[in-house]
């Protein structure tokens, strides 16, 4: 039996008298709305069966149609869209995807879409230094799937990042984008079919080579627990973990709106959606904290994935971020315990100062946007336009050849011999060491300015106190009354 206060392992702490629990430095108040171990295991054992069945039927139609032009891969979404009337199940599946649940409030979802552009720089840091480094790598089931699809190998990482950000831009660009028939809506269906493809391929390999993927331990690949965790990661980390660490505290209304957007995304992606997980911010926070408590268990694969991520992002244009800065960002966002478990280095103090400067900038912008609504509208509109033009056109344009591969398709097919290792591939650091790092310089300058202002205010306050004391005897009042 556990004593009233129990340390579960090196990273978790539970007080059974107050229901306070701490995991990886995050303290939560455990309530009946948090998931139990049995609920978590039930989610782990289940998956999107409707999507899996739809994929098999789409594949059968695609096989009958034959290869596309010049032997290109079939576009599963296009096959579903164009041939759904040939199969009653696919027709019903399409109808389900385009039906709008009664709990959807389009005005609220439109407000939720603005959150990404409103705090764009903070969201980028969240995704890079917490979502990818912690949640994608330290969740064993997710890490094992990712390692088998090559998505975080150094040579594939940039494509994976661009695809993820492109999808995010598509679903948040405007309301029409996420409504049935919009680009974000269609891209989300493509992602659902991709998840079914990943699961199908890994399970096929497990049948022919037992032990390739431990289904008993991790559940089916891309299972319902993974889906709940992913939706929670995208919608909740910002509210109660990442952004507060950067000095930004989203309002309850912002949290409710953004979570409402991702509850609809969960519906499209085939995640469990019975109202238990994201119906309101209280349930959403309980779901988020349940994922922190149960799911963050880094292993050796986690270390490899995290190190490959940091290795590739180092000195990539246009930011040219240093290894030290990224390690400082990771430790600031995730804590030393987690980063030590992932094998990340301990950077010098000036790297922490640079990331502190980053936080000063994003927090100051957030404050200014709340103070001046016209500035907020400008930032949201400008960010949306710039990102949509830069990233979406870059991914789909002539600068990135698709080689006949549809968007969000199964590019990195698992095979028996595939094994994820610390990737030796890395651009030539001999030339990169001489690069100017503009972002870090700006962040460091922001920190120095803030430090000098704080010092100046402190000195000014002391001088005022001295002057008041000389004039009115303020110090004697403080320490027991004015002297005669």
Features:
484 residues, mainly alpha, 3 domains, four-stranded antiparallel β-sheet, 22 helices, 4 strands, 65% helix, disordered N terminus, transmembrane
Give a description of the structure:
This is ER-bound oxygenase mpaB/mpaB'/Rubber oxygenase catalytic domain-containing protein. Pfam families: MPAB_Lcp_cat. InterPro entries: Lcp-like, MPAB/Lcp_cat_dom. The chain crosses the membrane at residues 442-466. Helix 5 (106-118) packs across helix 8 and helix 8 (154-172) runs antiparallel to helix 10 (183-208). With 484 residues, this protein is mostly helical. Strands 1-2-3-4 form a 4-stranded antiparallel β-sheet, with helices on one face. The protein has 3 domains: 5-44, no CATH class; 49-432, no CATH class; 440-478. 40% of the residues are buried. Strand 1 and strand 2 form a beta hairpin. It is 65% helix and 4% strand. It has 22 helices and 4 strands. It is globular, with a radius of gyration of 25 Å. It starts with a strand and ends in a 6-residue tail after the last helix.
